[in-house]
């Protein structure tokens, strides 16, 4: 059939028939995609690994969000399913490994074969100009790590000892002043200690964040992490239907 004959055939079709044909096609695609999701939930069983029972479409994401932090959920699952198991973010399988021998094999002996990292939510493409070490994957992440490795040599880290000791002394001094035999929220002090260490070691700037509670830099950093934790509808779609992440990023 030539192109002209095909156009003529389409023009001769009635609008209701085209709508029915479109509806049948979309329904078929949806059923095939739902079947793919259902099949994906057998990923770990087919490979001989245990995993918590997933919810259809959601996987184990809602169980994770019910906990105060992800590490608590990992600890519970590790006690139940062992040192190697998996869970599902939507229908994307995620391995959790706490066996030290396997971790050593992955990160040390065969690190060249494991350059990829799991993408989080709506990370931009690796070719984008805004991609940094935290969100880069595959070859770009590996290249960034190779460039940064000399910075974390043992000799370079030893040079940071006096700075870290100074920050730790500040933390002890602040806790001694604030506690006064009363209970204190250690979390806030540890946040400031961490920020103080990073600013001094990485940027060479002493912003005195542990003594000055009203610190603009501290509040700005908290805003950044808070914005990363706020998940909107688009982020949920990217989690539950990870095949379409690249399409959503390009929008």
UniProtKB/TrEMBL annotation:
InterPro entries for this protein: Cyt_P450, Cyt_P450_E_grp-II, Cyt_P450_sf, Insect_CytP450_Detox
Stored Pfam families: p450 (PF00067)
Statement: the UniProt record of this protein carries the keyword Oxidoreductase: yes
Keywords: Heme, Iron, Membrane, Metal-binding, Monooxygenase, Oxidoreductase, Transmembrane, Transmembrane helix
GO terms, molecular function: heme binding; iron ion binding; monooxygenase activity; oxidoreductase activity, acting on paired donors, with incorporation or reduction of molecular oxygen
Cofactor(s) annotated in UniProt: heme
Regions that span the bilayer: 17-39
Similarity field: Belongs to the cytochrome P450 family.
Name assigned to this protein: Cytochrome p450
Organism name: Brachionus calyciflorus
């Amino acid at each position: 059939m030539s192109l002209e004959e095909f156009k003529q055939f389409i023009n001769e079709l009635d609008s209701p028939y085209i709508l029915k044909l479109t509806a049948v096609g979309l329904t078929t695609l949806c059923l095939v995609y739902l079947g793919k999701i259902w099949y994906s939930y057998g990923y770990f069983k087919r490979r001989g690994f245990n995993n918590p029972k997933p919810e259809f479409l959601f996987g184990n994401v809602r169980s994770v969000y019910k906990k105060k932090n992800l590490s608590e959920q990992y600890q519970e699952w590790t006690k139940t399913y062992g040192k190697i198991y998996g869970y599902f973010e939507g229908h994307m399988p995620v391995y959790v490994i706490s066996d030290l021998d396997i971790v050593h094999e992955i990160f040390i002996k065969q690190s060249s074969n494991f350059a990829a990292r799991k993408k989080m939510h709506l990370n931009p493409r690796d070719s984008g100009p805004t991609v940094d070490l935290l969100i880069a994957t595959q070859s770009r992440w590996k290249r960034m790590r190779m460039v940064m490795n000399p910075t974390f040599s043992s000799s370079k880290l030893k040079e940071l000892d006096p700075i870290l000791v100074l920050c730790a002394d500040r933390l002890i001094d602040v806790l001694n002043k604030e506690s006064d035999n009363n209970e204190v929220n250690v979390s806030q002090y540890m946040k400031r200690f961490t920020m103080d260490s990073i600013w001094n070691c990485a940027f060479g700037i002493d912003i005195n964040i542990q003594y000055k509670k009203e610190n603009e830099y501290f509040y700005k950093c908290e805003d950044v992490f808070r914005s990363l934790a706020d998940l909107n509808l688009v982020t949920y779609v990217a989690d539950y239907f990870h095949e379409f992440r690249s399409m959503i990023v390009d929008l």
